[in-house]
Target: DUF2884 family protein
Amino acid sequence: MRNALFATAALLSTSVMAHNDECSVDMTMGVDLTPTKIELLVDEKSPVVMTADRLYVDGSALELSSEQQDAYQAYQQGIREFVPQVVDLAVDAVEVAMIAVQEVIKGLNINDDGQRELEESIEQLKETQEKYFSKEEQTYHLAAHNNGEFDEELEQGISRVVENSVEQGLGSVFSMLGEAFSSSDGSFEERMEAFGKRMEKMGEAIEQKVEASAESIEQRGDLVCEQAEQLHKLELEAHRQIPQLQDYSLLKI
Model:
């Protein structure tokens, strides 16, 4: 059982974020995205505002040529495709951690104090995620983050949840082991065998659930990396066509 819990920890703390080994992307501006508008958020500057057919820089609408309009529309569409994928990926990565913790709580009958401690860790993890990524219906928010700071904070949060899960889980295991020792049902060997099978079954269930989710997230992470590279090209072309945008770089790759 101990190995199963630590295998789960490894899956959460490494596989979930494995796509970061394939590409390195920093968001140098925040983004607010709604069905009708995109805002690129920059500290101490007016946001760049994008609507279906108008581009506003420093609060003024720009008159765009046909070529500029084409570059603008392609860039805007790239942002609309990229941002929801990134936000959903971050939200789902946190969900993976929550699934594992819920399975530990359910399988090990962790006491109320232990459950509260795990729930606090989960809440801190969700707060980290929401600090950078959030969504409500068709509205998405993506905060600026540089030098892998979100990846580091998220991984620390996941590690904290996993460590608490392991600590509380092992405490519950020892409690159940004590009950097995003192039980009068069957021989000692039979009680130990039943206990071992229960732990093995629960460990396998946790690992299978987390592993499938982690693999899916890693695959989606690879796709997000490809999207980031494509969006970066669209951004460079928009900068080339529209000089007023050159001081506003969304991606750093």
